[in-house]
Amino acid sequence: MARAGTLIESVMKDIESKIASRAYLPNTRLPSVRAQAKAMQVSISTVVEAYDRLVAEGCIVSRPGAGFYTSGPIAPLNLTHIGPKVAREIDPLWVSRESLESTAGSLMPGCGWLPSEWFYQSGIKRALRNLARTHSLDLTEYAPPKGSQAFRHFLQRRMLSHNIEVSAEQIMLTESGTHAIDLIGRFLLSPGDTVLVDDPCYFNFHALLKAHRVKIIGIPYTPSGPDLERFAQAIKDHNPRLYLTNSGVHNPTGAHLAPHVAHKLLTLAQASELVIVEDDIFADLETIRSPRLAALDGLDQVIEIGSFSKTVSASIRCGYIAAKQDWIEQLVDLKIATSFSGNRFDSEIVLQTLTDSGYRKHMEKLHHWLAKQRQSTTKKLINLGIQPWIQPKDGMFLWCQLPTGKNATQLARDCLSKGVVLAPGNVFSQSLNAHDYLRFNVAQCTDEKIFEVLAWALDQQI
Amino acid sequence: MARAGTLIESVMKDIESKIASRAYLPNTRLPSVRAQAKAMQVSISTVVEAYDRLVAEGCIVSRPGAGFYTSGPIAPLNLTHIGPKVAREIDPLWVSRESLESTAGSLMPGCGWLPSEWFYQSGIKRALRNLARTHSLDLTEYAPPKGSQAFRHFLQRRMLSHNIEVSAEQIMLTESGTHAIDLIGRFLLSPGDTVLVDDPCYFNFHALLKAHRVKIIGIPYTPSGPDLERFAQAIKDHNPRLYLTNSGVHNPTGAHLAPHVAHKLLTLAQASELVIVEDDIFADLETIRSPRLAALDGLDQVIEIGSFSKTVSASIRCGYIAAKQDWIEQLVDLKIATSFSGNRFDSEIVLQTLTDSGYRKHMEKLHHWLAKQRQSTTKKLINLGIQPWIQPKDGMFLWCQLPTGKNATQLARDCLSKGVVLAPGNVFSQSLNAHDYLRFNVAQCTDEKIFEVLAWALDQQI
After folding, report:
1. For an engineered disulfide with A118, which of A41, A91, A114, B256 has Cβ 3.0 to 4.6 Å away?
2. Is B119 within 8 Å of chain A by CB?
């Protein structure tokens, strides 16, 4: 009896969690008792009893002659209920909140952005003073639907210099890079669709895609791009709708897409009508240019997005989408409907900063600082037995493997207790196979205390 | 045969449009041939033939033994395909784009915001100069997950002064008011849910809710709030999930929610677990305070949202959500996932402007200007035979009825040809029964040319 009770409860729990995560939408027919029993590998009587109890709880309803239905309205969407259950320490949202909430005293070698003093603050301040001097519509008026025309022309020239053929009318400004991806998701995805990401990839891609209730498939990332065999197999097995990637400096590995991989990848995508979203957020940190899928494809199946949160400001928000014309027109409607037309003011400051004569010089200095920091951080990590997966040419990230037997999640927990916020590998990994990896941001590794705490925490693990 | 052909095509077209609007989600089972035939009132053989042709077109697939399924991936989401087909001139998205795109020369008595010179630009400029002088994290760093603590404390005090009991931890900043409503929609709504709005209501509510693929029911709005009988009936008939409204100065009517209506409304909502989203965007334009549902309810089933785009700046973006604690925590996760954590910079400028000693004085002047403009615009409109529905106590809007037999959509089309952008009533009306109404923004009615063009356009209609 105890066993039967447990089984019924576990079936109930499974169904409840499918309702909470909206795998079962409200007012939707549940699988028949027979199908459910088969799917869950339990007896029919177990499912009958579970359904009956769920009806008693008001969680589902029985419609005579039509079967069982989820009730509506349902519980609010809870992102932490979607997808496989993971420890809070490797939950992408937890890592984001921990980094964003951290107080002045804490050290953040795991965070994804530059320290504020590495940004071109004098350029931003000049732009602010300019705006404060003029009688300017930029201070109070809504933006035109696609965003500032001057900014779109700037982006057009910038993309042309990367060999991406695009007109200014094919570009729409957004509130941020994340907002850009989110709009594309709302435009192209439906719940249940499949999306490919790199494994590892930027961890917020997981949280963002969860909010779209899609199935996420991770493609192992190699030092020259995604594993092409696995990519082809995933297309065959899952008929995915989207592939979301960084072509430039890859997050978290610092790798670059090799030209021959780019070409084959695009050929595979074109054969299957897979849309590629290429996030070019790290463009200005690149020292040697890697190919852009958007350039090879001519913005047909590839959508280019980007922002300036890594190079101008994470606080003054401005992102963009470049795509084929009819998609952009529909994305404009979607943007107006869901966020009206913002960012006139922020985009003006970002544009003035980007076109300030000092910006290029500041970027050269930044490249130099980062190169120095990559070198010194690598050395200190190797001294602790922590090995970079590759030695990146540019960017701020080092993707590193711990000594044999050490666990990154435990390490992150221990270091957090000493005020050091790390980014454990499994946060970036859809398959959760990066348990002995960490991502380091070399720009945030200037304090010696980080390495002392790391050494201490490594010693805690036998 | 011709008739059968036409019927089959119309069945195909109907199914295709349901797929385009995502009434049928991808990879989802279609109704059985028998059920479809019954629903569409056609013969079974017509449906069999339509399904077969749709299979041939690749639009749907047949799974032996399991029925017909929509294929995935599907066409992108197109907002203009969702809901009843309306003329572009009364499509909310068209009116938004027309107003946002308008060039310097055009007059915009239909637009929903103040002219730039009516804003407190000197306060904004002072805030900019302040920020340009300090070594400030606000220039480059991400915001904490809930947004600036100082701003949340300011909002807490502000809400307490409206008798809304709230802690700063129950408040989250957003990119804008529209963004706030959008996040709540993603949190609480699933496709197919029902949402109540006022009829008429702010037109972008329609566009926003379309993007959530919900069923929208309009409740007739009276000079003291929504019609309570119709509200009760709609709850009974449709079991709605949300009701979205302005309690303060109502858009587009300028009416106020009366206390007795607020109380009854809340009693009805509480009896049925209906969540109310109260948009308080016009708070600072109110001269006599109307009750807030959030105050009566204690932020249990009511969610309060707002922004400063009508009083500080539409370009410097900042909105907020106040709700019960556990909802806010989940909304923070959803915000980080879908837009990361922005608006630190903009919220700092808005906060400095709001707390600048000159802001209150500017608002007093603004109230005075608006009162004068309401009076003079009313007089000029009445001279043309255009009658305000009520004489609002405050705010910028006049909801006006045209002389008998005149059509607002036609009038808007004619005036547009002369460079005057109007807002025809049916844009605001879910039931499309406001064909002889227009919304005027008195702050945008200072140019005599508007009334000359109106007189001319009225004469065009016999």
Report:
1. A114
2. yes
Does the structure show a pLDDT above 60 at B339?
A: yes
Using pLDDT thresholds of 50, 70 and 90, give the confidence band for residue B276. Answer: very high
A132 to B137: CB separation less than 8 angstroms, yes or no: no
Cβ pair A239, A207 in contact under 8 A:
no
| Paired residues of A197 in beta bridges | A218, A244
Q: Do A106 and A33 lie in a common domain?
A: no
d(CA A8, CA A30): 16
Same domain? A138 vs A259: yes
Does B220 have pLDDT greater than 90?
yes
**CA B378: distance to chain centroid?**
25
Distance spanning both ends of chain B, measured CA to CA: 45
Candidates A243, A225, A244; CA nearest to A234 is A243
Distance in angstroms (rounded) separating the CA atoms of residues B22 and A445:
48
The boundaries of the domain holding residue B426 are 87-117+360-460
Helices H, strands E: what count in chain A?
16, 13
Q: Tens digit of pLDDT for each residue in A248-274?
A: 899 999 999 999 999 999 999 999 989
| B80 domain-assigned | no
Residue type, A48: V
Å between A460 CA and nearest CA of chain B = 31
A449, part of any domain? yes
Q: Give the pLDDT confidence of B164-199 residue by residue, as tens digits.
A: 999 999 999 999 999 999 999 999 998 889 999 999
CA distance B181 to B202: 13
- A319: which DSSP letter? E
Collapsing DSSP to helix, strand or coil, A32 comes out as: coil
Mean pLDDT of A291-318: 93
Structure tokens at B27: 């990879």
How is residue A62 annotated by DSSP? Answer: E
Which residues make Cβ contacts (< 8 Å) with residue B360, sequence separation at least 6? none
The CA R_g of chain A, rounded to the nearest whole Å, is 24
Does the beta carbon of A35 lie under 8 angstroms from any beta carbon of chain B? Answer: no
Q: Does A75 lie at the interface with B, CB-CB under 8 angstroms?
A: no
